[in-house]
Amino acid sequence: MAPKNFSSFIHSIWILLFVFGVASAQLTPDFYDKTCPGAFAAIDKVVRAAIANESRMGASLLRLQFHDCFVNGCDGSVLLDDTPTMKGEKTAAANNNSLRGFDVIDRIKAEVESLCPGVVSSLRAICPITGGDNNLAPLDTETPTVFDNGIYKDMMMEKGLLHSDQQFHNGGSTDSQVEGYSKNPEAFAADFGNAMIKMGNITPLTGTSGQIRLNCRKAN
Length: 220
Known about the structure:
mainly alpha, Peroxidase, domain 2, 2 domains, 43% helix, 9 helices, single chain
């Protein structure tokens, strides 16, 4: 990894590791300059040592961040181990025996904790895995039991429950579509129906292809 890009790489690992407890606009590399001035240097030292020991580790750590952040935002959930009551992301089909670098994250956490105990908090400490894994929240806060355009209205008010949902109305090319659906429930219903029909027409088995099952749960 080129030295000029290494600082940005450390910023990425910083985001993966720590939840700051402040608004996203305040997430900056210098946030802990006063309360834990050695944190950034500690992360830099551990990551550099890990990559020097195994050159592939830089890519592995970036992939670890991608799997954490791409769905539902950067919350550190990919770092959680399985428990008797919860199956974590580590052992999910796409990640099991594939994601690497958890030991590096552990070393970084230990290093920073030794410098500033209890100052830089990881999500694993903020949200313990015994805190209730079955808590549910409606995707549509206004009409959770009705299939309508409510979720688009939530996005317009920046109240999308999932980070990935809110990105549909965040200054991008899909803003106008969200705005249209929020104002016109009939248009949403019609477009949704058409989309489902299109999806159902993706290479269906017809004629002599496949079989008419006697029991839908198993082949004849």
